[in-house]
Amino acid sequence: MFGKATSREAGRIDFMIYVFCFVDDWLKDKRLRQRGPQPTLSDSEVITIEILGEFLGLETDAAIFRYFRRHYGECFPALKSIYRTTFVRQAANLMGVKALIWRDLTRRLPYEPLISIIDSAALPVCRLARVYRFRRFKWEADYGFDEMNKQIFYGFRLHLRIAYPGVIVGIELSPASAHDTQLLPELTAQVQGWLLGDRNYWSPQLQEELRLRNLILLAPFKHRKKDPIPSLTRWLARKRRRIETVLSQLVQRFKLRAVWARDLWHLSSRLWRKILAHTFAVAFTWQYSLHPLRFSKVITY
């Protein structure tokens, strides 16, 4: 069917089959539509195309649609008989389904529930010079400061909580002006154990509130020069490299900052498929006893 596939292509096909089988089995007993005809391209096929497209670094819906229609038409024959807009609309309407699949997939992965790492990433929606005439997300986005690039940006902030060895177990989206500590209650609901954060999470009052529900927040002192325990700061920096790796993967491989959505609904749908794609990659590497965050091994093992 595929001819003589290279090891890279064979890895992609194995990953695609793994994702499709999981999603198709998950959707087997669920009725997503109460009435009307079934879609030409099945929901499991749409989600699989999205996941692999994100893993390959395709930024837009149009790029994903063209790529799979051209290179994987034999795997998804119905893709050649639908329009791009139909595919995009169906993918956006499956946002809630992707969130539920992600929650179920994380429950099946082995991770340490008592050790969590938290951080956030800037999600700009346009350049500062264009904000005055930018009409999208007018009531949702705001100004914020990007710690990584040391500059002001306009957009949103993505808050993540991961568990060792690198499984994303919590996600929240907020305006860029929201401080990291504001989203902490939503990210840590019903969570106990240890929580590792950076200087933005330093708050004695918050630490005491979390301690009352058996959650110990470890964060360096707010000011670097006045840090009373520099050895703890260095230790936290080493332990927090895992979430920095996850964020860099989301930004570089999964093109987190390439925001092409026109509204919050489509933006949320694309964020969920990026998170789901990352989690599927972790699950696939775990299945083959590979390092959970070395995604290059997914297509070359």
In words, what does this structure look like?
The chain has 301 residues and is of the alpha/beta class. The chain has a domain at 112-259: Nucleotidyltransferase, domain 5, CATH 3.30.420. The protein is built from ten helices and six strands; from the N terminus they run H-H-H-H-H-E-E-E-E-H-E-H-E-H-H-H. Strands 1, 2, 3, 4, 5 and 6 form a six-stranded mixed beta sheet that branches. A hairpin with a 3-residue loop joins strand 3 (151-163) and strand 4 (167-175). Helix 1 packs antiparallel against helix 2 (43-55) and helix 2 (43-55) packs across helix 3 (61-71). It is globular, with a radius of gyration of 20 Å.
What's a quick, concise take on this entry?
With 301 residues, the protein is of the alpha/beta class.
Give the topology:
Blueprint: H1 7-27, H2 43-55, H3 61-71, H4 84-93, H5 95-108, E1 115-126, E2 142-146, E3 151-163, E4 167-175, H6 184-187, E5 193-196, H7 204-211, E6 215-218, H8 230-239, H9 241-252, H10 264-287
Parallel strand pairs: 1-5, 5-6
Antiparallel strand pairs: 1-3, 2-3, 3-4
Helix pairs in contact: 1-2, 2-3, 2-10, 5-10
Q: What percent of residues are in strands?
A: 15-25%
The gyration radius over C-alpha positions equals: 20 Å
Largest sheet report: 6 strands, mixed
Helix content: 40-55%
CATH class category name of the domain at 112-259: Alpha Beta
Net shape = globular
Q: Give the overall average pLDDT.
A: 89
Helix/strand class = alpha/beta
Strand element count: 6
| CATH-defined architecture of the domain at 112-259 | 2-Layer Sandwich
Measured between the Cα atoms of the first and last residue, the distance is 21 Å
CATH topology of the domain at 112-259: Nucleotidyltransferase, domain 5
Number of helices: 10
Low-confidence stretches: none
Reading the helices and strands in chain order gives HHHHHEEEEHEHEHHH
